[in-house]
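ok here's Origin recognition complex subunit 1:
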Amino acid sequence: AEEENENSLPATGTPRSSKRKSALMVSSRIKKQLNLLDVQEDLNSDDDDEFLPSKKELQSSSEEEEDEDAEEEEENGPDSDDEVVAKKSRRSSSSARTPRKTPRKTTLSTPRTPRHATPSIPSRSQPARRPTNVLEEARTRLHVSSVPESLPCREQEFQDLYSFVESKIMDGTGGCMYISGVPGTGKTATVHEVMRCLQHAADVEEIPPFRFIEINGMKMTDPHQAYVQVLQELTGQKATADHAAALLEKRFSNPAPRKETTVLLVDE
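and the structure:
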């Protein structure tokens, strides 16, 4: 800084040197710190040279070793098997010193499912085993997936349902019946059994033919979708809820001489 100030002064003036003790002490401290920094840089550079050789030095050392081996081969002639093995081990040890590249990470790809995948259940290799004693038979009949041949303790309910639906089919009139009860008492099973018996009676021409349609309310997000499903089951036509309700109203309001009776079961 003093030199820069001296250079910046005009040529006519004489340079002044500060004789203050504080300025001299500060300049001496700065010199000491600069000397310490230079010493540390020299030490760091010496350590790096000792412990961390550069790639060029490693390559040059390996090339020098190969040249030495080639010269020895030319001078000594063909080597024996033991010498060849020793040279190979020497080369492998020298190559082991050189740092290798990090291996690439292998990412496992998940298999993609096909677009048109249809789930299938494998067929049985052997038929289902029949119950051998009374306890196994009772267990299979009490299972939730078993369909009984008859409905015990539901004779009165079966008779009420059968007589109601049969009278409407015979007279060709409309009507509605509401069936209520706690879950698991056999409401749906009783109605299905009644419809099975009525369809059998219609097949043998004991009663007029009818059409049976069943929809499940638990599969709908909106009650108005019932109109859409009923219209689709009857005619195969797709429409919105309001339009389907209007078409059903028109279909069942207009009288016709030979109209087929429709039995609609709305479960849940």
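+1. The first helix runs from residue 2 to 8.
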